[in-house]
């Protein structure tokens, strides 16, 4: 796969990114570009490097080589909080909520980069800080309502059902007001009805908040149904990239991943 | 009442100051960082007050002005804050037990420095620190406001953007960072705030104890503070405050119980002389059976609900 073309509309450009852990090459010179407003799927068998790629984009892991550009700016090797500040939010494959805290607190925490008040102004609760606190609460409550958790806002995150926890993670990620949202297997552990609801949620949220979404998903029908374009990883390498219908027929993909489901 | 205050004046003030010190351990713990550095800043604050009041402001006739004590507290707080920042930036790159070890080392280093400098009076320390009050109980005028302000500060902090960022780091540092929270900045902020408060407490304590030397604010104090937080509770600021108050009073309470006539002689002797053993047993039992301490957020919620219920 050669370097992806650099169009002006590209929000995220992954350019020859490699990640090695000791002798294992988890991601091997992967290049692609995600256009503004696109719903971009990332699929591949277990251990293909999908989550590693997410970790590279969000700064949790530093790449061994290659570059990441976001809105034309080089974000390679930035620490996670700097990446988040720039408008990239994510969820985690194995849900990482703040378990002891309420659902509402989980979402309020993620308003961090969109709020300003510091130690002193916050503690004194002066005019601006007080207004900001109020707004943070309102917005967090609205996001909980958006994902259908408004009735459970005071529930501790760890006590929520698994599907609810996944939706709470999406609400928390949305609280950053991201332009790019990375969803790592959001439908894992959900039943068919929940998966359909999730698919509708992702679609409506993307339209309403003009989001660009990068989605890792094992559940192939969801990806095929939802995504504009799909990239397929296998053993750390990008083996196919294109619209769902095209990717589905790609011989390498059929062999590596979809072979048993066609 | 008057005789109670006269008998226990020293103990009551010690209890309040211990509660504030327990809060200095709680602040970094809010961000999940076990730092036992505050006795070091406490010692530093004490030396600053001792040196300022004995060398810089020569004691005149009568009582030492309270305004100068407040000035010493401010200086101690600022100096501790600056040192806290200088120590915190490198130290808070360490995690878990390594941070605890580094802060123990910090406290030891400060102790050795104090023991060997001329300005701190070497092994003898600084004595005859002037008194702003005519009786020990009047130190409550400084200690109680300090405790109330610290408690209000921490209580408010838990409900602000910064406080939420600290708690998020405690819950899951990686997820917090992915939500845009700068881990190092917030850990250093909590550590430095703790240092500021510990320095101020040290300044009051130096006057209160009347003498200051390298036996103040040692590793023993670190262990006591940890016990306050562990027994009291580490998930809400009420825990350390209660732990500090109760555990400081406990030895005296045991001594009082030992004085009751009906007790057999051996038990009275044990309560009187074995109170450190009892103290240790309580800490052990507390940490085994109440891992989050006696006062937990859940307990406070239940109490609040009961209080709010009409009738």
Written overview of the protein:
The complex is a heterodimer of chains A (262) and B (311). Chain A is an alpha/beta fold. In chain A, the strands form two sheets. Chain A has a six-stranded mixed beta sheet, sandwiched between helices. A four-stranded antiparallel beta sheet of chain A has the order 2-1-4-5, with helices on one face. Chain A folds into two domains: 1-87 and 178-262, Rossmann fold; 97-176, no CATH class. In chain A, helix 5 crosses helix 6. Chain A has ten helices and ten strands. The longest helix of chain A has 20 residues, at 127-146. Helix content of chain B is 73%, strand content 0%. The model of chain B has no long low-confidence stretch (mean pLDDT 90). By secondary structure, chain B is mainly α. The two termini of chain B are 33 Å apart. Chain B has a domain at 2-217. The chains are: A alpha/beta (262), B mainly alpha (311). At the A-B interface, helix 2, helix 3, helix 4 and helix 5 of A face helix 5, helix 6, helix 7 and helix 8 of B.
Task: Please provide a brief summary of the model.
The complex is a heterodimer of chains A (262) and B (311). By secondary structure, chain A is of the alpha/beta class.
What low-confidence regions of chain A span 5 or more consecutive residues with pLDDT below 50?
A: 1-6
Provide mean pLDDT of chain B, rounded.
90
Annotated CATH homologous superfamily of the largest domain in chain A: P-loop containing nucleotide triphosphate hydrolases
CATH topology of the largest domain in chain A: Rossmann fold
Main sheet: strand order of chain A: 6-7-8-3-9-10
Derived from helix and strand composition plus strand pairing, the structural class of chain B reads mainly alpha
């Amino acid at each position: 796969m050669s370097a992806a073309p650099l169009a002006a509309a590209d929000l995220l450009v992954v350019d020859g990114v490699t990640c090695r852990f000791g002798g294992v090459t988890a991601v091997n010179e992967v290049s692609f570009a995600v256009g503004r407003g696109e719903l971009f799927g990332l699929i591949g068998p277990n251990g293909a490097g999908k989550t590693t790629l997410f970790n590279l984009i969000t700064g949790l892991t530093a790449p061994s080589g290659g570059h990441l550009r976001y809105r034309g700016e080089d974000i390679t090797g930035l620490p996670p909080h700097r990446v988040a500040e720039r408008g990239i939010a994510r969820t985690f494959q194995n849900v990482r909520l703040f378990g002891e805290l309420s659902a509402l607190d989980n979402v309020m925490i993620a308003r961090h980069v969109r709020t300003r008040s510091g130690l002193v102004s916050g503690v004194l609760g002066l005019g601006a800080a007080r207004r900001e606190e109020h707004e943070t609460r309102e917005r967090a409550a609205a996001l909980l309502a958006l994902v259908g958790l408004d009735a459970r806002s005071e529930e501790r995150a760890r006590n929520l059902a698994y599907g609810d926890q996944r939706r709470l993670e999406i609400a928390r990620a949305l609280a950053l007001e991201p332009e790019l949202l990375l969803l790592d297997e959001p439908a894992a552990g959900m039943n068919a009805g929940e998966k359909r609801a999730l698919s509708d949620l992702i679609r409506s949220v993307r339209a309403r908040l003009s989001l660009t979404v990068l989605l890792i998903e094992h559940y192939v029908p969801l990806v095929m149904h939802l995504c504009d374009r799909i990239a397929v990883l296998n053993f750390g390498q990008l083996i196919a990239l294109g619209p769902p219908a095209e990717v589905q027929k790609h011989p390498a993909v059929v062999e590596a991943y979809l072979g048993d489901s066609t | 009442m008057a005789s109670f205050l006269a008998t226990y004046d020293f103990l009551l003030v010690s209890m309040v100051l211990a509660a504030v010190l327990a809060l200095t351990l709680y602040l970094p713990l809010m961000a999940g960082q076990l730092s036992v550095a505050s006795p070091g800043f406490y010692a530093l604050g004490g030396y600053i007050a001792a040196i300022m009041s004995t060398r810089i402001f020569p004691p005149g006739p009568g009582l030492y002005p309270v305004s100068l004590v407040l000035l010493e507290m401010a200086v101690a707080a600022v100096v501790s804050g600056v040192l806290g920042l200088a120590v915190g930036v490198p130290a808070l790159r360490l995690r878990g037990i390594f941070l605890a070890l580094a802060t123990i080392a910090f406290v030891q280093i400060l102790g050795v420095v104090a023991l060997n400098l001329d300005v701190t009076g070497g092994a003898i320390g600084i004595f005859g620190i002037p008194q702003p009050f005519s009786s020990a109980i009047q130190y409550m005028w400084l200690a109680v406001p300090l405790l109330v302000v610290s408690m209000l500060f921490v209580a408010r902090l838990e409900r602000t953007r910064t406080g939420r960022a600290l708690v998020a780091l405690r819950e899951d540092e990686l997820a917090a960072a992915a939500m845009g929270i700068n881990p190092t900045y917030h850990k250093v902020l909590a550590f430095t705030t703790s240092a500021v408060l510990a320095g101020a407490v040290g300044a009051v304590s130096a006057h209160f104890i009347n003498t200051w030397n390298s036996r103040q604010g040692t590793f023993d104090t670190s262990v006591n503070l940890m016990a306050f937080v562990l027994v009291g509770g580490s998930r809400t600021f009420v825990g350390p405050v209660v732990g500090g108050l109760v555990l400081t009073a406990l030895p005296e309470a045991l001594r009082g119980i030992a004085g009751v006539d009906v007790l057999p002689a051996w038990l009275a002797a044990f309560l009187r002389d074995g109170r450190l053993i009892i103290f240790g047993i309580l800490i052990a039992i507390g940490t085994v059976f109440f891992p989050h301490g006696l006062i937990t957020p859940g307990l406070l919620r239940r109490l609040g609900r009961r209080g709010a219920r009409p009738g």
